[in-house]
Specification:
The complex is a heterodimer of chains A (about 170) and B (about 200). With about 170 residues, chain A is mainly beta. Chain A is built from 1 helix and 11 strands, in the order αβββββββββββ. The chains are: A mainly beta (about 170), B alpha+beta (about 200).
């Protein structure tokens, strides 16, 4: 019984410190550099109950002189990660895997966003909850692998337009 | 003189043929049939819902409803559409309290009744999953609503292409229109209000 109490107290303490830990984490700087690539604001959406998939979104700029390709990645809570493209053909939603990855040409900025290119998180082990950040990696053909954190936004969020502002003021 | 006469007869004959052809095209009965083709969306379906209750076109008579073809392994369009319609129904308040939205899975191999119940319930209890018992039942349902679905292979399994419109059906079970994600909430809610007001 007392062991349970101690556990509860530890849990409560860790909850109390959670905002501090989050505020101090690099997630809110939230852009990354890898060689000539700049990766801005990786984010995802809170998942509905029972959902086993989610999309990962971000903006990637290639400041180098050679093309690179986003070919894969990982997410802590996802069993499988693929690169996909979604498109509407009239009223039909079409989804395609991009087995060769997504090319980012020299000087080009590519936006991964709802309704278009995305990192496809499959086989989710736990739901993505609004406000949390989830660790993962991105793998590029030339530049290699980088560790990133995906910020989980609200269901239906369109993301990407509140850069820099989600430090202290963000709701937890 | 004789040659001129032949030319004149040929010319009149040509005009006659063209006139008859024009009249035929203008009054073509096939065209008239196509004019009412929109009404043939929908039909006498029978599907189990996520609670195991049978939902039929006849059992829904008297109440307008919405219908969507989707699947839970859908990262974007399905959750977005369900969130939008949840927001729309909430905005309409009491008028929409008995309205139902049926989410027909195009992936019955993975979407069990229990999973659909959890999924739709995380949006709004007025959204009800419908579970075709097999491929044939799904194909019949999709054909009735002229919906498209297609299995697409991916490196780790498969995904589904599918019609992403929300079908609106009136109290007589007749097709009323669609909701589209590209429309503003105001436009969608005005359509829903017209559907609810129609008796």
């Amino acid at each position: 019984m007392s062991r349970l109490n101690a556990r509860l107290r530890n849990f409560a303490l860790s909850l109390a410190f959670l905002p501090l830990m989050l505020a101090g984490s690099p997630a809110f700087a939230h852009d990354y550099k890898l060689g000539d690539l700049k990766i801005d604001h990786p984010w995802s959406r809170a998942t509905p109950g029972g959902a086993k998939v989610a999309g990962g979104y971000m903006t990637i700029t290639n400041n180098g002189k050679e093309a690179d390709r986003l070919v894969g990645g990982t997410l802590l809570s996802a069993g499988i990660v693929e690169i996909h493209e979604m498109a509407m053909e009239g009223s039909t939603m079409r989804m395609r895997a991009l087995p060769q990855g997504l090319e980012i040409k020299p000087g080009q900025t590519v936006e991964l966003k709802p309704g278009g290119f995305h990192v496809m998180f499959l086989d989710l082990k736990s739901p993505l909850k609004e406000g949390e950040t989830v660790k993962g990696t991105l793998v590029f053909q030339r530049a290699g692998t980088i560790e990133v954190e995906f910020k989980v936004e609200a269901r239906g969020a369109s993301g990407g337009h509140e850069h820099g502002g989600h430090g202290g003021g963000h709701k937890h | 003189m004789n040659a001129l006469k032949i030319v004149r007869i040929t010319a009149w004959a040509a005009i006659g043929i063209i006139t008859v052809a024009l009249l035929y095209v203008l009054l073509n009965p096939v065209d008239r049939e196509q004019g009412t083709g929109v009404a043939s969306i929908g039909g006498p379906f029978r599907l189990a819902d996520h609670n195991g209750q049978l939902v039929t076109e006849a059992s829904l008579r008297g109440k307008p409803y919405a219908l969507f073809f989707g699947f839970t392994h859908c990262p974007d369009v399905c959750p977005t559409s369900m969130l939008e319609i949840t927001n729309d129904l909430n905005a309409l308040g009491n008028a929409a309290k008995d309205f139902r939205v049926y989410f027909v899975t195009v992936d019955p191999a993975r979407d069990t009744a229990a999973l659909l119940k959890e999924y739709t319930g995380s949006f709004d209890p007025r959204i009800i999953g419908l579970v075709p018992k097999d491929e044939a039942e799904l194909a019949t349902m999709a054909r009735m609503f002229r919906a498209i679905y297609r299995k697409v292979d991916t490196p780790s399994g498969y995904t589904m292409d599918h019609t992403a419109s929300v079908y609106l059906m009136d109290a007589k079970g007749e097709f009323f229109g669609t909701l589209d994600s590209k429309e503003t909430p105001a436009v969608r809610q005005a359509k829903l209000k017209r559907l609810l007001d129609r008796r």
